[in-house]
Write a sequence for this structure.
């Protein structure tokens, strides 16, 4: 593992996660967003329900561990899996 794969780095790149929550679960998706925003260092969360599986983009103002985001989403009864590294 590396620094980039284990963390969401601050800046405009962010990190994309995929979740098992569906676009029909709009209340659950808002709950997931609220739980992620409670993590210190997270500044923005965007949910893209047009893609399958639903994608969550997380942008930070400080380095945030991917595990912290995964664990926050698990508290809602769903999962978040990081999609991969950003394009260079």
């Amino acid at each position: 593992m590396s620094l980039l794969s284990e963390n969401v780095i601050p800046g405009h790149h962010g990190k994309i996660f995929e979740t098992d929550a569906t676009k029909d679960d709009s209340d659950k998706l808002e709950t997931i967003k609220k739980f992620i925003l409670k993590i210190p260092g997270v500044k923005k969360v965007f949910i893209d329900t047009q893609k399958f599986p639903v994608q969550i983009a997380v942008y930070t103002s400080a380095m945030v561990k991917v595990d912290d985001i995964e664990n926050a989403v698990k508290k809602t009864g769903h999962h978040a899996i990081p999609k991969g590294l950003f394009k260079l």
The longest helix spans residues 26-37. Strands lie at 7-8, 15-19, 42-48, 55-60, 64-65, 80-82.
